Amino acid sequence: MIEVSCAIIVENNTILAVQKDGKSDHPFCWEFPGGKVKEHETAAMSIIREIAEELLIHVEIEKTLSPVEYDYGIKQIRLIPFVCRIKKGTLQLTEHADFRWLKASEIMNLNWAGADLELIRVNQNFFNSEQKWKR
Questions:
Q1: Which of 77, 119, 120, 125 has its CA 20 to 30 A from that of 105?
Q2: Strand ranges for the chain from DSSP E
Q3: Residue 112: DSSP 8-state
Q4: Is residue 124 pLDDT above 90, yes or no?
Q5: What phi, psi does 42 have (nearest 5°)?
Q6: Average of per-residue pLDDT across 17-29
Q7: Cα separation of 24 and 47, whole Å?
Q8: Mean per-residue pLDDT for 33-37?
């Protein structure tokens, strides 16, 4: 089981989604940004590092949501979500093809990677209510 952290980045009552490029295991699927937790770090440390590397921004963690386990056939992951806010920096993509800021009503309009879709399903009370995105 591979531990993967992801950031649910909230800004102006919207949530950030990023699109994988064509070279990934899940080409052109949408996901929440993040990546593998390294051996020497916690999931929280991992998400801070991953977001700095992938989006060139610094985030602060506000809370965690329920993690999910997902079997892609070629790999099994445990996806650990953190609700975050941008602390500083301007978002720039270094690994992804595109990004979108989504309202609650738009969340299900994208072709999500399997684990991310399961994460949305398990945490639907959070994703269905922009009221829960406010500080």
A1: 77
A2: 2-11, 14-19, 30-31, 34-36, 58-64, 68-71, 76-88, 98-102
A3: B
A4: yes
A5: -85, 165
A6: 82
A7: 19
A8: 96
